[in-house]
Amino acid sequence: MCVESDGCEIEGCSSSDEVRTLSGSMSPGLKSNPDLHPCKPGQKFRAALLRCRSPAAAAGILSFGNVLNYMDRYTVAGVVLDIQRHYKVTDSGIGLLQTVFICSFMVAAPIFGYLGDRFNRKVILSCGIFFWSIVTLSSSFISREYYWLFVLSRGLVGIGESSYSSISPTIIGDLFTNNSRTMMLSVFYLAIPLGSGLGYILGSSAKEAAGDWHWALRVSPVLGITAGTLILVFVPEPKRGSADQMGGRIKTRTSWFCDMKALAKNRSYVFSSLASAAVSFATGAFGMWIPLYLARAQVVQKTAEPCTKEICSSTDSIIFGAITCVTGLLGVVIGAATTRLCRQKTERADPLVCAVSMLGSAIFICLIFVVAKKSIVGAYVCIFIGETLLFLNWAITADILMFVVIPTRRATAVAFQSFTSHLLGDAGSPYLIGLISDALQESYATSALWRFLSLGYALMLCPFIIVLGGMFFLATALFFLDDREKAEKQLSQLTRPPSSVKV
Question: Which part of the chain is the Major facilitator superfamily (MFS) profile domain (predicted)?
């Protein structure tokens, strides 16, 4: 039999079992004691609930939350043409929506990283989800006279979502190790393209079903509140570093300034963070502008008319969303399998796979702007291949961080990697692309052809940034083994065997 933390018996356990307490810690099996009293009905329910807190279930719930995180982020992109017409703003004004969102996201990330390394992580996650869900729902009721308030609401949503992206990978990192951790992180980061694609589909479908684009912002909040509740109930709070040291406990905790100094000296971490910024630059710009770019391409090809109605066609957003879902699945699965295979050949497999995929992606993304004027199908093929190669590296980048950063500073590391990638990446890319497009349109007489070309020329900046990201991954490969060895030595110095359990 087993005992719960309050000293009652739990039926159906053997003496060798372990019991997960409400805090997420593991208590070793204890022998029967005559002083123990039978569990009350409420305590039995509590014990049954604790048995549902398996690492696999926790990873699944966290992945579901990540899907909703990115679904909410790209629901707006799925109805961007409707928002532009409703509020009567320019390309740069629309790009400002994503820029404000990302700026608030990246500013909040270091704060949540600090909190995530020191306080209960699942409580922070749940509060963040509840906050952005309520704000998203409220923003759907903002009238057309208050576009600035709509922009501000996206900034508040970014703060809520920042808590989730900064902290949730560290819980998975403390529940699994080695190839199991790679696989679970792959599932978790699969939620990025999957959620992004579903955001386009959900936004477009809800808009067309209700005949009003505002309803695109009224579905994901309900799912978000559900996810927050599941995290509170079923996700444990594992001991930091428990997976890496098989239950070893951290003897000392370093200060925030010490953590930042160590991360700044970690060359693999620095270069992989810069590479992540290149990925964020491209995905942020693509997520906001590609559906609109393809809609303008069809007007140029005379296969579609310019939108003059209150509700514009969502075909391109739905197709782009579906492609993003499929390429995300393929990219993450292929990336995990390729890395696992290449690790048998070289210990530098992780950053090398990322570098090759980035450089290959740049080629096909360049081709999008070459073929889009003549063939929409050809553009979709290039998007499919380019996105698949680009999505290969998301989970691998997270795994690189887990290898080269010790557990007690991982939340801080994830947060500052998020800060860096957004600051140098998608915080500015949507607005920058819109600004370049507006500037080019002002230089020449406005026409459907030139509106299409100006946006295409602006988006051509993306493949060059992707190539730069590939170079940063190559630099990561040079220092990866040394930094991983340093992290392992630091962890062995900070841990000690768990003390005996007293009852």
Answer: 58-487
DSSP 3-state of 322:
helix
- Burial bucket for residue 350 (CB in 10 Å: 0-12, 13-18, 19+): buried
Average pLDDT over residues 42-69: 71
3-state secondary structure of 52: coil
76 with 174, same domain: the answer is yes
196 within 8 A of 328, measured Cβ to Cβ: yes
Is 476 in the same domain as 426?
yes
Selection from 185, 137, 184 nearest residue 157 by Cα = 137
CB 429 within 8 A of CB 283: no
- Domain co-membership, 148 together with 96: yes
Q: How far apart are CA 111 and CA 416, in angstroms?
A: 9
Q: Same domain, yes or no, for 264 and 223?
A: no
Do residue 176 and residue 266 come from a single domain?
Answer: no
pLDDT band with cut points at 50, 70 and 90 for residue 353: very high
In Å, how far are 48, 75, 158, 210 from 8, measured between CA atoms? Answer: 13, 48, 44, 54
Q: What is the pTM of this model?
A: 0.67
Residues 419, 425, 428, CA angle at the centre, nearest 5°? 105
Identify whether the C-beta of residue 405 lies closer than 8 Å to the C-beta of residue 266: yes
Q: What is the rounded distance in angstroms from the CA atom of residue 139 to the CA atom of residue 117?
A: 32
Q: Which of 248-257, 409-418, 455-464 has the lowest mean pLDDT?
A: 248-257
What does the DSSP 8-state code read for residue 372?
T
CA distance 428 to 394: 20
Domain that holds residue 65: 52-238
231 and 378 assigned to the same domain: no
> What is the pLDDT averaged over residues 110-128?
79
Amino acid at 340: R
Report how far apart, in Å, the C-alpha atoms of 304 and of each of 78, 80, 294, 298, 462 are: 18, 18, 11, 5, 27
Residue 232 burial (CB < 10 Å; 0-12/13-18/19+)? middle
Contacts of 327 (CB under 8 A, 6+ apart): 193, 383, 384, 387, 388, 391
CA–CA separation, 264 and 274 (whole Å): 12
344, with CB counted inside 10 A (0-12, 13-18, 19+), is exposed
Cβ atoms of 237 and 121 closer than 8 Å = yes
* Token pair belonging to 67: 């899907």
Integer Cα distance of 400 and 223 in angstroms: 31
Instruction: Give which of 431, 433, 406 is closest to 489, Cα–Cα.
Output: 406
User: How many structural domains compose the chain?
Assistant: 2
Work out the angle between the directed axes of helices 429-443 and 267-300 (0-180°, nearest 10).
40
Confidence of residue 271 (pLDDT cuts 50, 70, 90): very high
